[in-house]
Design a protein that fits this description.
Elements: H1 3-26, H2 40-47, E1 52-57, E2 62-65, H3 67-72, H4 83-95, E3 99-107, E4 112-122, E5 127-134, H5 136-172, H6 177-208, E6 217-220, H7 221-238, E7 242-247, E8 249-250, E9 252-255, H8 257-273, E10 280-288, E11 291-298, H9 305-308, H10 320-326, H11 332-342, E12 346-352, E13 356-364, E14 370-371, H12 372-379
Parallel strand pairs: 7-10
Antiparallel strand pairs: 1-2, 1-5, 3-4, 4-5, 6-9, 8-14, 10-11, 11-13, 12-13
Helix pairs in contact: 1-2, 5-6, 6-11, 7-8, 8-11
Length: 380
């Protein structure tokens, strides 16, 4: 809460509780509600707060709790109070100053838990104000960032260590021309891998920030397919891979063209890298109603069932040795997932070992797609 919000709450509580005390002292037989521990005006203020707000009594129960507090699980409508919140209130009364901490709250038959940050401020000897905010997503994000940092550090060690070792080898054998030439080639390979890794780390960080698609534009997916196939044909020729273009329609979508090209490029690169020489990789594009369907189909190694659920995780590799050989970073499919998610689409995997894999992207199409076959005939 902002300082202004805290000030508003404090003033309302001081005014409301002060009025309540005066009414109690008069001791008349007037309306009983007016003499409650938490006057009506104070309840109104607390009820409109976005944070959970609870007036804690000395007997470890709530004198009042707003709807958000009940939803968070720090209190119940019957006045019951979460033990962690009551404990914080006891500490606040003892310290005669605000106390704050995180409380784990388990709810439901499955015992799912949430992390709630609670700040308790003593109001007088009998009442305290507890303000609660759900920190579950923030804690999960922090854990994800820590995991990401650890993974990045681990991934960078491999190419950096290899470069250091190769440089030492060249230094020790500077007069051996053939060896220097051989290891210089390996240095170039590791440098390319390191550059690719850094670029993809930057991309995945930008995508996870949720700010990568700033300005949407109309994107012709047929043009995206053509651009990617043109970019990968040299790599495909090197493995004698046949690239097949199956475009039955050219849907228009709203999005970021560069990101969509990057996502499709990652899928096609993977299909080429994990296909045996002389295989075939197909890029199929069409439209089903209001959905644009973009699929990359290969006849490669396939993905085991136990790996399919994790294939879109950052740095996850089904075959680390082959990834090192092909220069894979383990970030390509994670980038695909985030790009598709930012375009409000879905990506689905079908795979069978020794048969091949199909990655299918579905996006919302804008209007009717042009029939690619008819368009080609008209041009001819």
């Amino acid at each position: 809460m902002s300082p202004e919000s805290w000030l508003l709450v404090a003033l309302a509580l001081a005014l409301g509780i002060g009025i309540g005390v005066l009414v109690n002292r008069r001791g008349g037989s007037e309306d009983t509600v007016a003499g409650t521990l938490v006057p009506h005006r104070t309840r109104e203020v607390l009820s409109v707060l976005q944070s959970g707000a609870v007036i804690v009594r000395r007997d470890r129960r709530s004198a009042f709790a707003n709807t958000t507090a009940n939803a968070l699980g720090v209190s119940r409508a019957d006045g019951a109070l979460h033990g962690g919140v009551a404990d914080l209130a006891e500490k606040a009364w003892k310290a005669e100053s605000p106390v704050e901490d995180e409380v784990e709250i388990k709810r439901g038959v499955l015992g799912s838990s949430s992390i709630v940050h609670v700040r308790v401020t003593p109001l007088n000897d009998e009442l305290a104000l507890a303000v609660a905010n759900d920190n579950t997503e923030m804690r999960a994000a922090e854990a994800t960032r820590r995991e990401f940092a650890v993974n990045v550090s681990h991934e960078l060690k491999t190419p950096v260590g290899a470069l250091s070792l190769l440089a030492e080898t060249i230094e020790d054998n500077a007069e051996d021309t053939l060896m220097v030439e051989k290891f210089a080639g390996k240095i170039r390979k590791e440098t390319r891998r390191l550059t690719k890794l850094i670029q993809e780390i930057i991309e995945i960080s930008r995508l996870q920030g949720g700010e990568s698609v700033m300005e949407y534009e109309t994107v012709d997916l047929g043009g995206v397919v053509d651009e990617v196939l043109e970019a990968v044909h040299i790599a495909a020729d090197g493995k004698r891979i046949t690239l097949v273009r199956e475009v039955t329609a050219s849907p228009i979508v709203m999005g970021d063209r560069d990101l969509l090209v990057m996502a499709l490029r990652n899928l096609v690169d993977n299909a080429i890298n994990y296909s045996e020489p002389a295989g075939r990789v197909t890029v199929a594009l069409g439209q089903e109603g209001e959905i644009a369907r973009l699929a990359v189909i290969d006849q490669g190694l396939g993905i085991a069932t136990e790996d399919q659920e994790r294939i879109f995780e950052r740095f996850y590799r089904t075959d680390p040795a082959r990834s090192r050989e092909t220069g894979g970073t383990g970030l390509g499919l994670s980038i695909v997932k985030h790009v598709v998610a930012q375009h409000s689409g879905t990506v689905h995997l079908w795979s069978q070992p020794s048969v091949g894999s199909t990655f299918t992207i579905r996006l919302a199409a804008e209007g009717e797609a042009a029939d690619a076959a008819e368009a080609a005939e008209e041009e001819s």
